[in-house]
Design a protein that fits this description.
The complex is a heterodimer. Chain A is built from nine helices and ten strands. Chain A is of the alpha/beta class. In chain A, the strands form two sheets. A six-stranded mixed β-sheet of chain A has the order 6-7-8-3-9-10. In chain A, strands 2-1-4-5 form a four-stranded antiparallel β-sheet, with helices on one face. In chain A, a hairpin with a 2-residue loop joins strand 1 and strand 2. Chain B is built from ten helices and 14 strands. Chain B has helices at 43-50, 72-78, 94-104, 109-123, 136-148, 166-181, 216-221, 235-243, 269-282, 297-304; strands at 3-14, 17-28, 32-36, 58-63, 66-67, 79-82, 154-157, 185-190, 201-206, 209-214, 227-231, 248-254, 257-262, 289-293. In chain B, helix 3 (94-104) packs parallel to helix 5 (136-148) and helix 4 runs antiparallel to helix 5. Chain B is elongated and about 70 Å long. Classes of the chains: A alpha/beta, B alpha/beta. At the A-B interface, helix 5, helix 6 and helix 9 of A face helix 6, helix 8, strand 12 and helix 10 of B.
């Protein structure tokens, strides 16, 4: 299969990772179009985190290949890291530093100029309406605000793709929705690759894939999957795939 | 029915942070009672006060008729507590962890076996494995066994399903249903609104305050205005368009639909549906489908929050 990389943000072909005898990711093949909001779903232990670590260049695949932002995930890891943003499920900013210091630190790590950091900082603070609190410690912010801040910090260097690993866990329902509106707004210029345990959020994605035991068991738009599995919600699709009848818990 | 837990005007602060503000609630014998709220709601602080690991700053609380301050020794013997973070001994095996917790309470794995059996059987094949080497789901089952092995009169589970996938969460709640059927009183906290319907009654909490205490059905019924679900293509554009509708009070994405409430108090749901249908078609949206629906717990929670996220 040839993949047109001018319109593809991520492609993976037969991507595999083994740890000893255990195959964590088993020949997964998929691609994500530029500008897409792609939901990467699966049960705990299905292999999502291992797959993401390979895509962002933190883990070398056992076999298979892939490209992210046009770069090879095995040979061009440095270029990939420069062109992506990453926000982990565990809050990824420094609680003992101020909001402004955190933004500056990340901007510096990504090699942005002083002027670009200053402009980015002002824009980010204005978006969140946090200008007056710029010199407060990040640790004093409620979780939902930390997560919104972490998202915009991950977007500070205008990455082509941003990876969000369970960005809304434990966040209140109103903030959770504000977060998704930020994702939609960002998707105009950036490809979004997101994992979540909230099945209602899966419905907000353009396309989703569902991993089961290291394989991609289903992939498509939420509407396509619901129709394929004769289900009324993505939650139901997920249950049917993760626990086929008679399988032990 | 009798009251197993009574919380009266309990408050607790940590420095300038008010973790709990005048919380009052009660839990009845045999209830499966949920404390539902996001991070920072005060769920863990309330649990720690009830299991006597923290002192309330003001107010009183009793568990099994015993005072959480004066009678802490007796309470500790009789409650089972599963904290939110994994707190078993990583270097002990599965069986050793359970035996350790049993011996601390002066009992044995065998004496508690029938109660923990439905859970324990799922991890028994790995009983000689060090607990550090277990998967997340198995660790959770082991922690539940350790909290149950001394046959507590009441079980406190602090966020047992946080970070757990949707299917495993469902199975965990099935498990709780079986424990409840055996007569055990269970208090469980969760940030997942959809889990509220699995409880007999719930307390909805946000930043240290109680928003409501009632059965999930009653809370949903008390939703004070018509709620319209709207679906169709181009959902995000439709959301922005609906927000501009002059009578819109709130518009939120909810799974594959949008939930809309109107600012006018005295309008019929079907009239709103007809208006919105026309409005959206005029704006070029096709295949629009709108219908009045019953509010869920998450709708109620958001309405009780005043539709505002927590201030920074």
């Amino acid at each position: 299969m040839t993949v047109d990389r001018t319109s593809t943000a991520i492609d993976a072909s037969e991507l595999t990772k083994k740890f000893g005898d255990f195959t964590a990711v088993d020949r997964i093949t998929f691609d994500v179009a530029i500008g897409e909001v792609f939901g990467f779903l699966g049960a705990n232990g299905a292999g999502k985190t291992t797959a993401i670590r390979m895509l962002v260049g933190l883990l070398e695949p056992t076999s298979g290949e892939g490209h992210v932002a046009g770069f090879d995930i095995i040979r061009q890891r440095k270029e990939i890291r420069k062109n992506i943003g990453y926000m982990s499920q565990r809050f990824s900013l420094y609680a003992d530093m101020t909001i402004r210091e955190n933004i500056r630190l990340y901007g510096t790590i990504y090699g942005m100029s002083d002027q670009a950091i200053a402009e980015g900082t002002n824009r980010l603070l204005a978006t969140l309406d946090l200008t007056e609190r710029a010199d407060d410690l990040v640790g004093t912010l409620p979780l939902g605000w930390k997560q919104k801040l972490a998202f915009l910090v991950a977007m500070l260097h205008s990455p082509k793709i941003v990876f969000l690993d369970e960005p809304t866990g434990g966040v209140d329902p109103v903030t959770r929705r504000q977060f998704w509106e930020m994702i939609y707004a960002a998707a105009k210029t950036t490809t979004i690759f997101v994992t979540t345990h909230y099945m209602d959020e899966a419905e907000y994605c353009d396309r989703i894939s569902i991993m089961v035991d290291g394989r991609i068991a289903a992939m498509g738009t939420p509407a396509e999957l619901k129709s394929e599995f004769n289900a009324t919600s993505v939650d139901e699709v997920f249950v049917k795939l993760a626990r086929p009848e008679g399988a032990p818990a | 029915m009798s009251e197993i837990v009574v919380v009266h005007d309990v408050s607790k602060s940590f420095g300038r942070v008010r973790a709990l503000s005048d919380i009052s609630l009660d839990v009845q014998d045999g209830e499966l009672f949920g404390i539902v709220g996001p991070d920072g709601a005060g769920k863990t602080t309330l649990f720690r006060i009830l299991v006597t690991l923290l002192l309330p700053e003001s107010g009183t609380a009793t568990v099994l008729g015993l005072d959480v301050v004066k009678d802490y020794r007796e309470i500790r013997r009789r409650v089972g507590y599963m904290p939110g973070t994994f707190s078993l001994y990583p270097d002990l095996s599965v069986a050793e962890n359970i035996q350790f917790f049993a011996s601390v309470f002066g009992t044995t794995l065998e004496k508690g076996y029938d109660l923990i059996a439905p859970v324990y059987k799922q991890i028994e094949p790995f009983k000689d494995r060090r607990s550090a080497a277990l998967s997340g789901g198995m660790k959770q089952k082991l922690a539940l066994c350790c909290a149950l092995v001394h046959r507590p009169d009441i079980l406190f589970l602090d966020e047992p399903t946080t970070g757990v996938d949707a299917v495993s969460r469902r199975e965990f709640w099935d498990q709780l249903g079986r424990l409840k059927a055996s007569g055990l009183t269970i208090l469980v906290s969760t940030p997942y609104m959809d889990e509220a319907v699995r409880c007999d009654r719930v307390a909805l909490m946000q930043v240290g305050k109680l928003l409501a205490v009632d059965s999930p059905a009653t809370i949903s019924q008390q939703y004070d205005r018509p709620l319209i679900a709207i679906s169709g293509a181009k959902r995000y554009e439709m959301l922005l368009a609906l927000r501009e509708y002059p009578h819109a009070r709130s518009v939120y994405p909810f799974g594959d639909a949008l939930h809309y409430t109107d600012a006018r108090a005295d309008i019929e749901p079907n009239a709103i549906v007809a208006e919105l249908d026309r409005y959206l078609r005029d704006r070029g949206f096709s295949d629009v489908s709108a219908e009045p629906i019953q509010a869920g717990i998450e709708d109620s929670f958001m309405a009780l929050m005043g539709g505002k996220a927590e201030a920074a």
